[in-house]
Amino acid sequence: MKEWKQAWKLAMYEVKAHGILTYFLLVVALLVMTLLAREIFTAYVEKGLFILDAVMLIIPMTVAMWVKAKPFQYQRLENNFWASPYFITLYSLAIPKNILMKSRFINYYIWSIPFHILLFFFFYLISPDAREFFTVGEYVAFSVVWMSYGIAAGSLYPASDSGDYVSNLKLTVYGIFSFVGLFFVIGVIRFGTGHGLVYWTMMAAQSAPIITIIVSMVVAMIGAKYWLSYMGRHIDKTDYF
């Protein structure tokens, strides 16, 4: 518990370091995504457009990170080494590894979780289709599903702050395979079941909201723990200096 408290204090330094522009962009992103989500959800309910499946697999773990100032983002530093400059700076200060790692995860959750809570909240307020389809309890379950996914999959982001050696070719290949893999999964679910991934999470939230919430939170904890462990092993194998 002491490590988590120290990690929290360290994470808050970054939150305070961001200027007003970052928070302005975060508000703009929230407004744009809320309005966009309303239109996409309506099209999904009425026409079954698959784009919402793709959006929901990408947005919950990325949007809040796009607006962060460049020194805090994952980027190419030298040769083929990619990392967060801020992480490298902290690592050079001989901060205990566990505290450093946990601070990166806390920082990700500080940015991501409140953003998506507000996104789901405002979306429900302005979307007649969402209010017609879900009761409040069912919508909470649906929101928890996707926020839990954002925690489980999005924890890759703080883990990647520790850096990796990636050539341009390797990065391109990863990008292509990720893009193709994403749409392959969406396609298999849609053509195999007749409905998209978002549809089935909507059904789960409607039919068993409590169970859906519990399972989603367990998945989130497993995902976060995995990426935290991965980051620890990766740091030990990386030559930073």
UniProtKB/TrEMBL annotation:
<protein>
    <submittedName>
        <fullName>Uncharacterized protein</fullName>
    </submittedName>
</protein>
<keyword id="KW-0812">Transmembrane</keyword>
<feature type="transmembrane region" description="Helical">
    <location>
        <begin position="197"/>
        <end position="224"/>
    </location>
</feature>
<keyword id="KW-1133">Transmembrane helix</keyword>
<feature type="transmembrane region" description="Helical">
    <location>
        <begin position="139"/>
        <end position="159"/>
    </location>
</feature>
<feature type="transmembrane region" description="Helical">
    <location>
        <begin position="79"/>
        <end position="96"/>
    </location>
</feature>
<feature type="transmembrane region" description="Helical">
    <location>
        <begin position="49"/>
        <end position="67"/>
    </location>
</feature>
<feature type="transmembrane region" description="Helical">
    <location>
        <begin position="108"/>
        <end position="127"/>
    </location>
</feature>
<feature type="transmembrane region" description="Helical">
    <location>
        <begin position="20"/>
        <end position="37"/>
    </location>
</feature>
<keyword id="KW-0472">Membrane</keyword>
<feature type="transmembrane region" description="Helical">
    <location>
        <begin position="171"/>
        <end position="191"/>
    </location>
</feature>
